[in-house]
Design brief:
504 residues; alpha+beta; Penicillin V Acylase, Chain A; Jelly Rolls; nine-stranded antiparallel β-sheet; elongated
Length: 504
């Protein structure tokens, strides 16, 4: 997703998350197991029940939505298709399941502390990242070595794979804490840390203590105990596992604040759900969903009037409906109504923005001038860096935010301004394999570009930073690739922005 859009939604997403902390503290998730049959149940407790169910495609290149443009966004191509529940827009799921049978669900955890910036790229929509990339709990755990969670949202997660492996994921004191296998004696998660919840459980009858279980309590710890008691009591004699899971969710619901009640059946690969406005069950068969990237993304409104099997009624993704949902939900979320519509529109565009990498580490040489030569004439004169035997002094130059671009090089500031001159910029692009990219250059004024010593682009003109960049498809070799720009200066502002995206 385009970094332009990442910056645009900075304030928006921060507000959503901070309001969520203060307003919502009541969600419950659990896994029930019997033999090789596993179901994951989730109550979504909030003040709105609108949303979309989205069928996400495999094979799509993505770049992480981030809150801090100084972070390096994780980039990936989705290995798996998925079905997700989304309230604040596509690619920002509350939870979901992928075609490999991995389920993740989100709950608030006040006190969460994510790791500080380090060498790992960052990702904020952690659920979508995992559904795109992982099939098993083991693989989800391993991603902590590859990416880190970026952003302030205080969340923790319950996950289950098709083999029945279950884990909780929390970030405490800047470190990932995983409970799985023997460290996960009960497969339940609410809104306190798993360790604190487990200690509270042991104070109750049937679980090591003498306290009575407080059925009907809305407290996080009491819900943990109530859900655990029902999960541990399940056996085949209790009847259908999906219906038992729905009954368990009813036992811990928070009145009308429980908006969505969802049960994932990992044996049949079906999602069953109800909403506060419709108590009849709706079902989506994951195996019947089309995850082929060559066909349109499918979706359906969570509160569709249809009940029963929804697969035949899925329709093509509608960006206008996604935009409407974002505007509708945010304007009806306490404390968010003052967010400008332009920011909401940027969030709506995020799913359709390309996976773009901005180049931010540059060195500069210059400025170069010649008596009587205009910037257009200097464009064609080979100066220092273009001369094989010339001695050139390069120095680091910072990049900065400009008009929502996170990596603008301000040559006028770096080189003390001036008119009718040129400067050169150089950077390095690392590639793990040989591949083609689309290089995109915004320049004020004209620009020439060389890749690995070969001229790849030339545009001799006078302009400010354009709305649409110059574009050229080039081939990167495996390893280091040297990019050099020559940027001309007529008068006034002077600078450049360069980025690239995959070519398929």
């Amino acid at each position: 997703m385009n970094a332009t859009h990442r910056i645009s939604v900075l304030v928006l997403v921060c507000c959503i998350l901070l309001i969520s902390v203060s307003t919502v503290a009541a969600c419950t998730s659990f896994v029930i197991a019997e033999g090789d049959h596993y179901v994951l149940g989730k109550n979504y407790d909030w003040n709105l029940d609108d949303g979309l169910i989205v069928v996400n495609k495999r094979g799509i290149a993505k770049s992480a939505l981030l809150l801090d443009f100084l972070d390096r966004p994780a980039q990936w191509t989705a290995k798996y298709g998925s079905v997700t529940f989304n309230q604040y827009g596509r690619e920002m799921p509350n939870g979901g399941i992928n075609e490999a049978g991995l389920v993740l669900e989100v709950m608030m955890l006040p006190g969460t502390q994510y790791p500080r910036r380090d060498k790992r790229p960052a990702v904020m929509p952690w659920v979508q990242y995992q559904l795109d990339n992982c099939a098993t709990i083991e693989e989800v755990i391993a991603t902590d070595r590859q990416v880190r969670v970026g952003g302030p949202m205080p969340l923790h997660f319950l996950a289950c794979d098709r083999e029945g492996n279950v884990a909780t994921f929390e970030w405490l004191d800047g470190k990932l804490v995983v409970h799985a296998e023997e460290k996960l004696p009960v497969t339940v998660l609410t809104n306190d840390t798993y360790t604190r919840s487990l200690a509270y459980l042991k104070q109750h009858a049937g679980h090591g203590g003498a306290n009575n279980i407080r059925h009907g309590s809305w407290g996080s710890l009491d819900r943990f105990v109530c859900a655990t008691d029902r999960v541990k009591k399940y056996n085949a004699a209790q009847g259908d596992m999906v219906e038992y899971a729905f009954d368990t969710l009813t036992a811990v619901r928070q009145g009308d604040a429980t908006q969505w009640t969802i049960v994932y059946d990992l044996k049949t690969m079906e999602i069953h759900y109800k909403t506060v406005t419709c108590s009849q069950t709706r079902t989506i068969r994951v195996a019947d969903c089309d995850f082929d990237p060559s066909t349109p993304v499918k979706m359906i409104g969570i509160n569709t009037p249809r009940t029963g099997l929804l697969n035949p009624h899925l329709y093509d993704y509608d960006p206008d409906l996604n935009r409407w949902l974002i505007h509708y939900c945010i304007k009806r979320t306490s404390g968010l109504s003052a967010i400008p519509d332009t920011m909401l529109d940027m969030l709506a565009l995020y799913p359709e923005a390309p996976a773009v990498t901005y180049l931010s580490k540059w060195e500069v040489a210059g400025p170069y001038t010649e008596d009587g030569a205009s910037h257009r004439q200097l464009f064609d004169i080979p100066l220092g860096p273009e001369q094989a035997d010339a001695e050139v002094q390069w120095k680091a130059v910072p990049s900065q935010l400009l008009n929502l671009h996170p990596a603008y090089v301000d040559l006028a500031n770096a080189l003390d301004g001036g008119d009718q001159r040129v400067a050169y910029l150089r950077t390095r692009i690392e590639a793990k394999e040989s591949k083609s990219i689309q290089l995109e250059i915004y320049s004020d004024d004209g620009v020439k570009a060389w890749l690995n010593g070969k001229l790849i682009h030339a545009n001799n003109l006078s302009r400010g930073i354009p709305t649409t960049p110059d574009k050229v498809v080039v081939a990167l070799k495996k390893g280091s690739n040297d990019l050099m720009l020559k940027v001309t200066q007529n008068a006034g502002p002077w600078g450049a922005i360069a980025r690239y995206q995959p070519v398929y």
